[in-house]
């Protein structure tokens, strides 16, 4: 399949001209991966450490938003997203948190709805993982505060996907490795469905939304929008962007788009 992907440099002016929105995934795309989390066994203490957007990228976003609406879609929670982009936050900035489950559009917060049975499953999984932590399993570091999905921080370990399968034999849940743990949530919602929701809200075609991503939870939104993968070996899209290990694909994409708009002006 990799052969079907095109280098972003080969995108046509017509396709670029049709874009209305750029959606940035966060971790590994516009900030380096490596968020650290540590929670104590009874959940009364939580320590989280993550990185910031680079100064240059924030300046580039300020320029880019003259041409495109900016959307940020992440597995992280809405408070984190809001604080990450607070400097540029206004009515043309859209936020989608918890893998499409929560959307902030023009001052209005909306969310997907799920059955009591779904939340019960998440509760059981959480309790079982807490039991593993209490039992001294040092591979698991705790949970990120979230409303609609469950995110455990841990090493990559089969125990967690196996547990999800055991609690959810119906297969209603996904359990996706995120490089720092697992996102566990309902298959009825995804970042891809979030992009469709944004397209409906703006009255545009989802393909007029460029999407970015580097991981399994980005696969659907890369398909729904005009996708640009920064990690083509892991997740595919119509386009890929090349970058060195110490470069962020999302930052390079912002530069690429700015180049196009500056030349056009
Ligand atoms: Mg990602």
Automatic annotation (TrEMBL):
It comes from the Bacteria. It comes from Candidatus Wildermuthbacteria bacterium RIFCSPHIGHO2_01_FULL_49_22b. One of its GO terms (cellular component) is cytosol. One of its GO terms (molecular function) is phosphatase activity. Gene3D superfamilies: 3.30.1240.10, HAD superfamily/HAD-like (3.40.50.1000). This is Sucrose phosphatase-like domain-containing protein. Pfam families: Hydrolase_3.
């Amino acid at each position: 399949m990799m052969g079907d992907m095109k280098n972003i440099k080969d995108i046509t002016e017509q396709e670029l001209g049709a874009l209305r929105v750029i959606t940035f995934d966060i971790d590994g795309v516009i900030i380096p991966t490596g968020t650290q989390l540590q929670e104590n066994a009874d959940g009364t203490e939580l320590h989280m450490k993550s990185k910031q957007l680079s100064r240059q990228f924030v300046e580039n976003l300020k320029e880019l938003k003259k041409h495109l609406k900016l959307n940020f879609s992440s597995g992280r929670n809405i408070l984190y997203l809001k604080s990450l982009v607070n400097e540029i936050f206004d009515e043309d900035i859209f936020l989608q948190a918890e893998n499409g489950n929560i959307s902030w559009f023009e001052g209005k917060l909306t969310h997907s709805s799920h059955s009591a049975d779904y939340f019960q499953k998440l509760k059981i999984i959480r309790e079982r993982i807490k039991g593993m932590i209490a039992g001294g399993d040092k591979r698991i570091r705790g949970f990120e505060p979230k409303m609609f999905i469950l995110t455990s921080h841990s090493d990559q370990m089969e125990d967690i996907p196996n547990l999800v399968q055991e609690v959810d034999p119906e297969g209603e849940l996904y359990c996706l490795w995120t490089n720092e743990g697992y996102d566990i949530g309902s298959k009825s919602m995804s970042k891809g469905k979030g992009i469709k929701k944004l397209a409906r809200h703006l009255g545009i075609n989802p393909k007029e939304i460029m999407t970015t991503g580097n991981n399994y939870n980005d696969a659907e939104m890369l398909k729904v929008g005009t996708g640009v993968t920064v990690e083509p070996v892991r997740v595919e899209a119509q386009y890929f962007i090349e970058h060195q290990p110490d470069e962020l694909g999302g930052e390079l994409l912002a530069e690429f788009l700015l180049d196009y708009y500056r030349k056009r002006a």
